[in-house]
Write a structure and sequence with these properties.
By secondary structure, this protein is mostly beta strands. 9% of the residues lie in helices and 40% in strands. Strands 1, 2, 3, 4, 8 and 9 form a 6-stranded antiparallel beta sheet that branches. Strands 5-6-11 form a 3-stranded antiparallel beta sheet, with no helix packed on it. A two-stranded antiparallel ribbon has the order 7-10.
């Protein structure tokens, strides 16, 4: 399963940590769904239309300083049309547009038909530092 911080976030964190360049963390972060996976430089095909909207995520760091996980379930609106096959998720610093911060392939692809609801259970979206 592939996934990573984006080049955008890596640049901000390295400059903040090692060159004293200010980086203000976003006040909120959002989960987006993709039918074609992004890469560290961005891209991919994010869903659009048919009631799709990025959803706010609340993260927590618990148990170990290298693991961050969603502290509550992430539930997308009921699809009003076929969304296609979701293959990846990404974390953004805005509900629309903004900057992609991290991305990952899903462990199992999920086809979303009209009337379906895509959910990510609490503690199921993990971000780790190795």
């Amino acid at each position: 399963m592939a996934g990573s911080f984006t080049d955008y976030l890596e640049d901000k964190l390295l400059k903040h940590t090692f060159t004293n360049t200010a980086y203000t963390s976003p006040s909120a972060v959002y989960c987006g769904l993709f039918t074609s996976a992004p890469t560290d430089t961005g891209g991919g095909t994010e869903l659009s239309g048919d009631a799709y909207a990025r959803q706010a995520i609340t993260f927590s760091v618990s148990g170990t300083a290298t693991l961050c996980t969603n502290s509550s379930a992430i539930e997308f609106p009921t699809a009003t049309g076929a969304w296609g096959t979701v293959v990846a998720v990404a974390v953004f610093d805005a509900s629309t547009s903004g900057n992609m911060l991290a991305w990952a392939d899903l462990a199992s692809n999920r086809t979303i038909a009209s009337g379906d609801i895509f959910r990510i259970p609490a503690n199921d979206l993990d971000i780790t530092l190795a």
